[in-house]
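Notebook entry, structure prediction.
Reason for the run: the old model in the group folder had no record of what sequence produced it. Starting over properly, with the input documented here first.
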Amino acid sequence: MQIRNSSDWRDAPPFELPVAAAEAVPGDATRCSGCGPTSEPWPREALWVVKHRHPTNPAGFVRFYCADHKPAAKLAPVAAAAPERARRTRAAAGSAAPRKAPAPIIPEREAVLCPDCFVQVPATGVCGMCGARVG
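New structure, fully documented this time:
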C-alpha cells in the first residue's frame, strides 16, 4: 500500500515544533491528545499543534496539546559541530590509503533503428519485431 498525501493545513507546521492552534487552523474546540478522549474540549486559543515524524509516512501526523501536555520543541543540532566533523574526516582521509583512480567512462553504443519498424535494434543486430538484420 502506498500512502498518498493531500495538501492541507497539516503541511504548513514544521516538524516537532509547537505552533498555536488558533494560528495554524482556526475552528471549533477540540480535545488535547495528552488529556485523553474523555476530557472536555479546549478552545483553539488554549491549544498547541505539533506535527510529529512518522516511521512510514513522510508527511508525519499532527496532534493537539494543551499547555500542560505540550511537548518541548526538538531543535536540530547546532551547525558548529559540522566543521569539526569535516576536519576530522579530512584528517582521517589524509592518513588512509591512497584513493583508487576512477573507472574509465565507456561511451554507450549508439542507438540503431530498424528501417522498417522504427524500433531500436539490440546489440545482436536482429530486429525483434520483423527479424531483419540491421548492420
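Summary: The chain is about 15% helix and 15% strand.
The old model has been moved to the deprecated folder.
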